[in-house]
Each structure stands twice: as C-alpha cells, then as structure tokens.
Design a protein that fits this description.
Structural class: mainly alpha
Strand content: under 5%
Radius of gyration: 22 Å
Shape: elongated
Order of helices and strands: HHHHHHHH
Distance between the termini: 82 Å
Largest sheet: none
Mean pLDDT: 88
Number of strands: 0
Length: 188
C-alpha cells in the first residue's frame, strides 16, 4: 500500500514538473511570436520609410541598401524550436534596429525630408512599433528566464532532457546597437 502511495506521489510530481516545463516552453514560444508580430509590423513600415527617404537621400544608397537587405533576412522563416535559429533571427532583428537608428539620424540632415508629412507619420508609426517591440522583448525575456531556470535546475532538468526541451536564447541587442550613434560620422 505504501509503495503504491510513493509511486503515485512520484508520478504526480513527475507529471507536475512535465506540465510546468511544457507551460513554460509554450509561454516562451508565445512571447517569441509576439516579438515576431511586432517585427513584421516594423518590417512592413520600412519600405514606406525607404521609399520616402529615397526621394531626398540619393547620396545614402549604401545605407538604404543595407536596411533593405536586413529587412529581407529578418522576414525569412526560421525554426522557433531551434535555439541557434532563434538566436540568429533575434540578432538580425537587432542589426536592423541599429541600421534604422542610423537612418533616422541621417534623415535629420535633410530638412525637406523631416518636413515631409508622410515621413513624419511613418516615423511616428515606426517609433510606436519600436516601443511595442521593446515591451514584447521584455515579456519574451521574462518567459525565457522561467523556462531556462526550469530546464537548468534539478529535478525538472532531468525531465527537460528526457523530453528534449532546451534553454532558449535571450533577446539581447548586438554590440553595434549598444554603441552610441555618432551623428557627425553619419552626416559626414
């Protein structure tokens, strides 16, 4: 009888740990999807910003081309269950944010571009999306912290290993995004 109780309690604990891991993984994946939704909104805005800017910024083709290339890479599909693919995707998103920051600074040198009503509206929308990306990133990182703790701390780590649940990468900015933007260099 006591053996059955011990087996039952052990089974219940194992199930609770398993269910907790699945919930944490699904929470992190949901938060990652939230980031992707915001990144897609940003990506949809970029062609409008580039089209408007291109009229005024003929000398900035290299920067406009880099933003376009990064946007294409950021929109590419990736395996959300593969930590390396998620990390690469989030890194590209950070690089794109960095390039867009440089583009914003460069646009300041073009008074007619700054005065363009469409550009002002596009920049306002872009800033709103960036704010939502920041909030989504915080939610994702909180969910990843909970998942990674469960994956790395015994006894749930043993279950995570058995069912192939891995730690997920945090959404961190790349080194280029952390560096201060030198407006003088960009405005040359």
């Amino acid at each position: 009888m006591t053996a059955l109780i011990i087996i039952g309690i052990t089974g219940l604990i194992g199930y609770l740990l398993y269910a907790g891991l699945i919930k944490k993984r699904n929470g992190a994946l949901e938060a990652l999807s939230g980031i992707d939704v915001q990144l897609k909104m940003r990506s949809d805005l970029i062609p409008n910003i580039l089209a408007i800017a291109k009229k005024y910024m003929e000398h900035e083709n290299e920067m406009l081309t880099k933003v376009t290339e990064l946007r294409g890479r950021a929109d590419a599909p990736y395996d959300k269950t593969n930590a390396a693919a998620v990390s690469e995707h989030l890194g590209i998103a950070s690089q794109l944010a960095s390039q867009m920051g440089k583009l914003q600074v460069t646009m300041e040198a073009y008074p007619t571009l700054k005065a363009d009503v469409q550009m002002s509206e596009a920049q306002r929308s872009y800033n709103e999306v960036e704010s939502r990306i920041s909030a989504a990133r915080r939610a994702y990182n909180a969910n990843v912290t909970a998942l990674n703790n469960a994956v790395q701390i015994f006894p749930s780590s043993a279950i995570a290993k058995a069912i192939h649940i891995q730690a997920m990468p945090f959404f961190a900015t790349d080194e280029a995004s952390k560096a201060p933007v030198n407006a003088a260099e960009l405005l040359g």
